[in-house]
Amino acid sequence: MSEYGKILSQFNRGTSAMQHYVGLRPMFDVEVMNADAKLVLGDEGAQPSPSNVAHGLSSMFKEIADTVRKEAATIAAVFPSPKDVMSILVQRVLEDRVPKLLEKLLLKPSLVNPPPMAEGGLVLYLRLLAVAYEKTQEFDKELRSVGCGDLDVECLTESLFLPHKDIYIECEQASLKQLYKAKMDELRSECQLSSSESSGTI
């Protein structure tokens, strides 16, 4: 098999062969990506909790890292330029598989009509964002330990969260206002209930 890799490398520096090899990896199948969403988000329509999401992301990233590690051994045995293939493989992971999951997990909320507190409010989005960022950073380190050629993994990982960083401050401020309003409404309800009970005992 390594002979095929050497022959293919003579054509277009082997780029087409590398991309074709990576594109055929089962880890990029639609069914696998759907399984990622099921693992991290749980049942469709269910509200995800930060703790469950953290556990799901840890499991998903471990599975991907283990697969990349196995692929690295095969790539080293087959291709004359394994670092180039690893760059393509890890880039595909960070530009395809991980973003597809994050798109489903981190739905950017409206700050004009924020999700109600009964559905977690803005604070749920912020907590999920924090969990996703932390776990992705850990995954970044794991990928670099496996080997990614000349790919700037750290930069690619950070770019996954740029759309969310752009609205983070505004979202944090809106969340604090929402939490404050919810607490004030709760206190008013308690005062009204206490007042009604006092009136009833007179």
From TrEMBL:
Give the UniProt entry's GO cellular component terms.
exocyst
One Pfam entry name: Sec10_HB
Q: Where is the Exocyst complex component Sec10-like alpha-helical bundle domain?
A: 1-188
Q: Which Gene Ontology BP annotations are present?
A: exocytosis; Golgi to plasma membrane transport
Alphabetical list of PANTHER family matching this protein: EXOCYST COMPLEX COMPONENT SEC10-LIKE ISOFORM X1 (PTHR12100:SF3), SEC10 (PTHR12100)
The protein, known as: Putative ovule protein
List the source organism.
Answer: Solanum chacoense (Chaco potato)
